[in-house]
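Internal QA ticket QA-208
Title: Verify multi-chain structure generation after dependency bump
Assignee: T.L.

Test input:
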Amino acid sequence: MLEVKNLHVGIEDMKILRGIDLTVNSGEVHAIMGPNGSGKSTLAQVLAGHEGYRITAGKMLYQGKNLIEMAPEERALEGLFMAFQYPVEIPGVNSAYFLRTAVNEVRKHRKLETLDAMDYLSLSREKLKLLEMDESFLNRSVNEGFSGGEKKRHEIFQMSILEPKLTIMDETDSGLDIDALKIVSHGVNTLRNKDNAVVIVTHYQRLLNYIVPDHVHVLLKGRIVRSGGKELALELENKGYDWIRKEVTSETANT
Amino acid sequence: MKLSTDQEAWYLSLFEQFQSTLNGKSNSPIQTLRKEALKSFALLGFPTPRDEAWKNISLASLLRIPFALAKYETLQEITLETIQPFVFDNLKCTQLVFIDGLYAPHLSSQNQLPEGLQVESLANVLDSRPVSENLGHHAKFDLHAFTALNTAFVKDGAFILIPEGMILKTPIHLLFISTEKTRPSVSHPRVLILAKDHSQASIIESYVGSNSGVYFTNTVTEIVAGNNAVVDHTKLELESHEAFHFSYLQAILGRQSSITSHLFSLGGALVRNDINALLAGEGCKPTLNGFYLLQGKQQVDNYTLLEHTKPGCPSHELYKGILGDDSRAIFRGKIHVHQNAQKTDAYQSNQNLLLSDRARINTKPQLEIYADEVKCSHGATIGQVDENALFYLQSRGIRKEIAYQMLLQGFAREVINKVKIEPVRKQLDKLIQQKFENIQR
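Actual output:
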């Protein structure tokens, strides 16, 4: 579903990603872990289409299509969804109106019937229950006055309405307490099936206890230096990022 | 006596013309008022950039036009159908329609009014006591040339008197239409609203040009709220894109009263609004809300003044603007807290979105505080559309142009949503949304 080959990304004069290779197939959950400054969020943002970065080399293919040539809204219509690390507050724009507009754009693209206000309301109610969110969220402006946990749950609520094929979670677990973490994970797991995929960008292993990955990749200074199964995440948790750094340095020294 | 310039001489000659059309007694109170106002105008002359309150506005384009006194020329027939776009859907209200400043009974509501309530053409009651005791007594014309001019030429407009204790369930809509003419014309509509003690009313003033064209609307509104009265006043400026609109609103607040002013400037080439509130009673509450949306070469200047002369009064001011193309706006929010106005709680905010790098906003709060126990907060922001918010909406599948309009609408909604009358709010929302759809990024 997603094929990233030799991706190099920079911002102004700085290089951030230095040759990322990543393949994600339908039905899979991938975790990308790394210390601060490794480039995790940059990878997520670039996949979503943020224009602040420069792609200097490499390619990204999503369902065979060249992502680099697709505007953010095109990517969303094709089923790519990013759960933001810091969801922005948009005062004056009603949440229900915003999401209904979005889901109808997606449905139109998929040649499905659009939802009227009543249909949308029933759908929202169903999904709000899944994320243990109160109906009052529908009337509020997008993310305005939401607590950190509420913002993250709102991201997953949107995911449940839009039913994306590829979800990228950018440090969704940061700032979440254990209860919120469980609710969010339950939401994501309920939506998983063999036709969609999830890429979880995270610093900590904790979330991966609840959303169990098939593949774990470690990102260090803009490169994926190690890949493995879910045990790799546990090893990292126990031994810390320094352990990987040493392993990588000794590996390069031996070659 | 100041020597008149050509422009002032023009208006003085118009006055003579005007006088000849009047049938009233030459020493009636209203005639005396007119003559006093004209004297003031002659003394003051039109403001120049040397006058502090007029230094950022160029009146040259206005003053070089020899306006004629507005007179309906029947170039277009104004029927109920013509005024439909300016009337609010689903709003049950008492409506007075004015064509070029003169009352048009055939287009206005004819419903029976409750005993004591007066909603009528000012021309009918110019010599009545409540009018002669109030007209021109609140909107001081000795310091403001355009108010002096309006008062000198006062002939018609609306007179609203809400008797003590009456709570009006339906709003009053005053619709002022300027029609197409063979030459540029000036009208001086006048509105006098007296809300007696414990009364409540909502009044909407709409100013529209039924065609594009050059004309000058010079309007003055006086609102006197008695003790515990509640007045909600909404003004829509939808003048033609070549028109000049100068307005002066003077509100007087009695003890524990509240006056809320909502001002929407969506039209006109050059607009100047002066909004003054005199807090004349303890615990009174003025709220000033404003929204301006400018395109092309429009200029809209909003000058507000809150005179806190009594203690314990909370005032709240929110003015927001969106400026595109080469437009210019000025915001001057003056708050004057007099010495005994202790426990004043004043809040003022002016927020602006610039859509082009040629648009200009000049914003300045002015605080003059002479009391000690005062809370006075003010803030001004100037920014552009939030790129992060735009990206967020796009990342959900919303096209950039639509996302952009959603953000502009969101910005405007904070002020639109303060209008409590639903049909008016809906109409404003629609009007503003249509304008956003035509905005180029």
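Spot checks passed. The radius of gyration of chain B is 21 Å.
Status: verified.
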